[in-house]
Amino acid sequence: MVLDDGTRWRSALARATWLNPPPDVQVREDALLVTAAEGSDLWRTTSYGFVRDSGHALLVELPEATALEVSFVVDLPEQFDQAGLLVRSGPEQWVKAGVEHSDGAPQVGAVVTRGVSDWSVAPVPAWAGRVVTVRGSRAGDALTVRARVDDEPWQLVRVAPLPPGPLLAGPYCCAPSRAGLTVRFTDVRLVPADGALHG
């Protein structure tokens, strides 16, 4: 989908619901700019010992047999800056997947939460400054997460269990450690689910 003005973003904002509205949102011709609140985060308990449910996400229904793709610029220069896709059943069951700055480099990964959170990451320093698309594909009892930079091939990030019932999904961002993070989302689209886990 080509973005030629801000109309589609304004329409998306009208149809979707914010989980924790961010301090600032700007609609541009080719992007949605979302500024995260200092201390915003999504995490439950594991290792860190705290519960955070303050991340910002613009959520719509994710029906069965569909996938949501979120594209954004990887401009995440400080520790724990993060952006990507959130798929959510409720405060104790959700998946966030995308890119997070951790230990000096951007990392692609996912946090899967079912009561408590787990986290998997892999460094992707070459993705800095480029457009990344994260795809969450819902099929049966599973969410398949893939990611790619620009138009390069998709990479499998995670296969995670999903609870039955309604799910919400959309672009998210968090800034656990600082103020001033603004994420440039360039596209969000609902598409058919992946045909298979493997090619």
From TrEMBL:
A Pfam cross-reference name: DUF1349
Domain of life: Bacteria
Alphabetical list of PANTHER family matching this protein: REGULATION OF ENOLASE PROTEIN 1
Name the UniProt record assigns to this protein: DUF1349 domain-containing protein
